[in-house]
Specification:
Elements lengths: L11 H9 L18 E9 L8 H15 L3 E9 L3 H10 L6 E3 L4 H5 L6 H4 L2 H6 L2 H6 L1 E2 L2 E2 L2 E7 L1 E5 H6 L9 H13 L3 E3 L8 H11 L16 H15 L12 H9 L3 E6 L3 H8 L7 E4 L13 E8 L4 H15 L2 H11 L2 E2 L2 H7 L3 H8 L13 H11 L8 H14 L3
Parallel strand pairs: 1-2, 1-3, 8-9
Antiparallel strand pairs: 3-11, 4-5, 6-11, 6-12, 7-9, 7-10
């Protein structure tokens, strides 16, 4: 979901060698790497882990090993890259036309628009397609055809520290913006950070959208066209600016990433943050908050809690470069990888939500995740527009400036880029 084009003409070959050199069996993405009748697929994905000990490469290597045991004629070489570097490295591959067979982590429309990837129906069996959560599958469409295959999903809620709330004399979590600011001020008076607002470059687009939704706005209007600088959105960002100026957030929200805010919440330093299920393992690892010390609730809006929170999904796309033999192999591998066993293993390991209906039904039995799964039906997702990746990157790098600058001007600049580049 994510990156900016860079010029790599001179260093392209060296970059690609570096990208794939760490895999002992790897070959150039998209090449017809086959010998003795075997087909070798190149899988390139985002890394959801926190380091070498739990790199997502290990998960996909396990899937690939089990798949190879059942399909000895197909090898799958796996490479994953940390989210920080993922957008740039993917764009390097694409710009150099060194396409992996399977890419996990980016949206489909830009690649579909360029004719680079297969429709979902060409690389998944109908039974697997029917098991995908329909709302997320639809988001991967281009010109009414499914191209993106949702792999992992997430929704958002507000986390709040019950111990801090009690110390500040707050009886229940806020439902409106006014209540949120009043509670944040009370929390600040007790020596804590009231509300954690991450508008740094890691994931500013998620935080921003939740505030937009709280004022009846969003990234697109009812017709699906960009409306980033709508009056509702400008008003929401002005409120966020005022909240920060009042000292009710951490210092410098525009330079603070999600991971820092979530870590400080887990350390018991922040009263309220917006987050996904991925906050839970951070809390558990910190060892400061017990389950009884924190809770989740609906995201506050201007006049009441959101009924349509943010839903996020990272997709898989399959590139055409390998030809017919690779297409058949891709289909076999993806049908295998979308079994409940692998969906649940991934989501339990990284505290995310599944993309298949059967895995979601199983996961809903865990009370820790049931509330997040319940929000899927009414979730709002990022725009399924071909230039969204570029727009998203501009939001990430520029919207933080609005907290100390002019919100209307910042949103107007992003809107101009969005509409002038194909939105």
């Amino acid at each position: 979901m994510k990156a900016r084009l860079i010029a790599v003409a001179a260093a392209g070959a060296a970059t690609l060698t570096a990208l794939w050199g760490c895999s002992s069996n790897s070959s150039t993405p998209g090449a017809s790497a086959s010998s003795g009748g075997k087909v070798t697929l190149q899988f390139y994905g985002a890394d959801y882990g926190t380091g070498p000990a739990n790199s997502t490469t290990k998960y996909w290597d396990a899937v690939a090993a089990a798949f190879h045991a059942a399909n000895p004629g197909i090898n799958v070489n796996v490479q994953t890259v940390d989210w920080t570097d993922f957008p740039t490295k993917v764009e390097t591959l694409i710009q150099n036309k060194q396409y992996p067979d399977i890419l996990e982590g980016n949206p489909a429309p830009p690649y579909a628009q360029s004719g680079l990837i297969y429709p979902v129906s060409d690389v998944l069996s109908q039974s697997t397609i029917s098991n995908l959560i329909p709302k997320f599958l639809k988001d991967g469409q281009y010109q009414s055809t499914d191209y993106g295959i949702p792999f992992t999903t997430s929704t958002r809620a507000m986390y709040y520290n019950k111990k801090i709330f009690k110390a500040a004399g707050i009886a229940s979590p806020p439902q409106t913006w006014a209540q949120l600011q009043a509670d944040a001020a009370k929390i600040k008076a007790k020596g804590y950070i009231g509300y954690g607002m991450p508008l740094g470059s890691e994931e500013a687009q998620a935080e921003l959208l939740l505030w937009f939704l709280g004022n009846g706005g969003g990234y697109v209007d009812s017709s699906g066209k960009y409306a980033i600088n709508s009056s509702q959105n400008v008003a929401a960002l002005n409120f966020m600016k005022q909240l920060a100026a009042s000292g009710d957030t951490q210092p410098n929200p525009g330079g603070t990433d999600r991971k820092e805010v979530w870590a400080n919440f887990a350390a018991g330093k922040i009263g309220m943050v917006l987050g996904s299920p991925a906050v839970i393992p951070i809390i558990q690892a910190a060892g400061v908050l017990k389950p009884a010390d924190y809770g989740t609730t609906d995201v506050p809006g201007k006049n009441g809690p959101l009924t349509n929170t943010l839903g996020v999904h990272d997709d898989i796309v399959a590139f055409k470069a390998g030809g017919a033999s690779h297409q058949a192999a891709i289909k076999k591998f993806l049908d295998f990888a979308y079994q409940d066993q692998w969906q649940l293993q991934f989501d339990n390991e990284y505290d995310l939500l599944p993309a298949t209906q059967s895995a979601a039904t199983t996961m809903a039995k865990n009370a820790m995740f049931s509330a997040f799964l319940g929000n899927i039906t009414n979730s709002v997702n990022y725009p399924a527009l071909a230039n969204w990746t570029s727009v998203e990157n501009q939001i990430k790098t520029q919207v933080g400036q609005a907290i100390t600058g002019n919100p209307a001007q910042v949103l107007g600049g992003i809107q101009q880029t969005a509409t002038s580049t194909g939105g």
